[in-house]
Amino acid sequence: MKIVIPGGIGQVGTVLKRALSAAGHDVVVLSRRPRQPDDVHWDGTTLGPWAGEIDGSDVVVNLAGRSVNCRYTPANLREMMDSRVHSARVVGEAIAVAARPPRVWLQMSTATVYAHRFDAPNDEATGVIGGTEPDAPGYWAYSVDIAKAWEREQETAGTPHTRKVALRAAMVMSPDRGGVFDVLLRLARLGLGGPVAGGAQYVSWIHDHDFVRAVEFLVARDDIAGPVNLAAPAPLPHRDFMRALRTAWGVPVGLPATRWMAEAGAFVLRSDTELLLKSRRVVPGRLLDAGFTFGHPDWPTAADDLVRRLRSRGVR
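^ that's the sequence the OP posted. Answer follows.
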């Protein structure tokens, strides 16, 4: 198959291209800043010659959007919104004008669309969409607005011959440099991998191999459309998540951090505490109902596998 990945130069795109190329597919990455000779330039906003890559392709997996690993200033939040909405819109336009449109369009979304909650898990059928939680900072609602606008752009696109799936993805864990697993493991190795603000908030995640397998599963299943949660079936509290990560690496203790310490650390790292403090208790209802089986359903064994792969590359 020919698979086009707009915004495919980040961590998730790298994971996906590597696996799909190894499986024998023709993978084309669209990027504002092409890195490889076969990457194709686009601006993520306007139609151009790049649209010819989509015409005649089999699958589009749109991952484009500004990284959320930044300070949530008004300017950065607006850029996060615009980069997602504009790229989804122009991908829809390219599919709409294609003489031979792809049969499926997988659009990246986010598990952040669900409410900050502790009481029950969020699946696609019964999950609570966030934005009005009384115990969450007001600006967190804008992240939910971004997710809703992102999905709405795909949903309303005029692409009648292309099935559309919104990937409400949790954090994708891979041993690649610069990914979320790399950051969290670095904290654990420094002895800073303890619970943050008590550690009761839930962490949703998915192993990189399961993310790729879920994408392949959704491409093959012509009966699945709309939002799908890409998350392992066992989200767990942050304190347990970090304990399992420390155990996998062999770090006996991790210093805890209060909320204000997390705020200070996030400021230094030019990131935002929403990524640590929001309780994302998300489960993959539709994937499980459709018969998808996870290779790494629980975090302790997933963390063991990721550490093993990292150490096989000579990291000690």
